[in-house]
Design goal:
The protein has about 190 residues and is mainly beta. The protein has one domain (about 15-190). It contains 1 helix and 10 strands. It has one helix spanning about 100-105; strands at about 15-20, 50, 60-70, 80-95, 105-115, 120-125, 130-140, 145-155, 170-175, 185-190. Strands 1, 2, 3, 4, 7, 8, 9 and 10 form an 8-stranded antiparallel beta sheet that branches. The two termini are about 20 Å apart.
């Protein structure tokens, strides 16, 4: 449309899904391009697990710290360099499972005993566990947008409330990228 400086069809509302797999070297390949949108049971997600339901979805944060290069002869900067870049995904997990606790509290391996009595056990750990993640959402064309981060740590901090009727238990998590920014792929399917 002549003279129009925006396209309201590009405004997107919708949820996302975070898929996780343990980090290995060499790193896991991104999910196959042929994998349909929001289908965690599809064979394309083999060896990946959904991090689960959230309270208010996911928030992606990209924080860039820069240093300005100044010279005496000019009042404005002569240049600017990137000092650091922090890329993270945050959420409050809404499923009260050992898996949610593992991601939020820094748990180790979850073991299962058939019983009797049957039980699942997890211990907390001071070790940092590394993962590969893909954040999947819908783009303006209604197709998949995938943010693939090959190496992250998943930690949490904050409180979990155990209330009779006030609210659900929520487990805060922060997924922090620890790979080069150039290794992160953002793919829009058209």
């Amino acid at each position: 449309m002549a003279g129009q400086w925006y396209d309201s069809n590009n405004v997107v509302v919708g949820h996302a899904m975070l898929m996780v797999t343990p980090w290995v070297d060499p790193v896991a390949d991104p999910v196959a391009d042929s994998t349909p949108l929001f289908t965690p049971d599809d064979a394309g997600w083999l060896d990946w697990n959904s991090i689960g339901a959230t309270n208010e979805g996911f928030k992606v944060n990209v924080e860039t710290s820069t240093t300005q290069i100044t010279i005496e002869e000019q009042s404005t900067p002569a240049g600017e360099t990137v000092e650091s870049k922090a890329i993270s995904i945050e959420a409050a997990l809404a499923e009260s499972t050992l898996e949610s606790m593992k991601y939020s509290w820094g748990g180790s391996v979850i073991t299962t005993v058939a019983g009797p009595p049957a039980k699942r056990t997890m211990t907390l750990s001071d070790d940092t566990n590394y993962f590969t993640v893909t954040l999947e959402t819908r783009n303006f064309a209604g197709k998949a947008r995938r943010v693939y981060i090959p190496k992250v740590s998943i930690t949490g901090s904050g409180e979990v409330s155990f209330r009779r009727a006030a609210d659900k238990q929520m487990f805060p998590v922060r997924v922090a990228s620890i790979c080069k920014p150039t290794e992160i792929e953002i793919v829009d399917f058209t």
